[in-house]
Specification:
Blueprint (H helix, E strand, L loop, with lengths): L1 H14 L10 E4 L15 H4 L1 E13 L7 E16 L11 H28 L7 E13 L2 E13 L7
Parallel strand pairs: 1-2
Antiparallel strand pairs: 2-3, 3-5, 4-5
Helix pairs in contact: 1-3
């Protein structure tokens, strides 16, 4: 979890450089096969903004010196994501183009924070902690329910039990 926590720290720092209105209200680690913003009678994670890091998968890498044998090396795929409310219109008219432009610009700012978090992670982990760190695909999310945003994968090759843990 150390790599995920370090990425979250970097992501949170990057998000907190955005204009105050764009900073998600919740920035945290999430667990599961996906992230669904939660809704309660007093709060709506989507409309207050939600950003997360989650472990998407961990897989063993094959040993180069002993073909067919797993090594202590692991490929950890992390996901950074952020969502916020989609624009609202009225009963008579849908959201205006200006509102959709604001949504697109906020999603782009979140993507920029993800890229900054990736650079931060590269600088914060030692070569012993992570053999390789690379960006995966960025993908838009939504509209789903009342949310829009995006996710980006980060692939880290690390050693299990030696230095950084997943």
């Amino acid at each position: 979890m150390d790599v995920a926590q370090e990425l979250l720290n970097c992501y949170s720092t990057a998000l907190n450089t955005l204009p105050a209105a764009d900073i998600p209200g919740t920035i945290c680690l999430r667990h599961g096969d996906g992230v669904a913003p939660l809704l309660g009678t007093q709060a709506d994670e989507c409309c207050s903004g939600l950003a997360w890091v989650r472990i998407k998968s961990v897989e063993p890498l094959r040993s180069e010196s002993l073909p067919g044998c797993p090594s202590a090396e692991r490929r950890v795929i992390l996901e950074m994501g952020a969502v916020h409310c989609l624009p609202w219109g009225t009963v008579q008219t849908p959201p205006a183009c200006e509102q959709w432009t604001d949504v697109a610009l906020r999603a782009d700012a979140y993507h920029g924070a993800m890229e900054a978090a990736l650079c931060c992670l590269r600088g914060s982990l030692s070569r012993d902690d992570a053999e390789q760190i690379e960006a995966g695909m960025y993908e838009p999310v939504g509209p789903d329910a009342n949310c829009v945003g995006g996710t980006m994968e980060v692939i880290v090759e690390t050693s299990c039990g030696c230095g950084v843990t997943t």
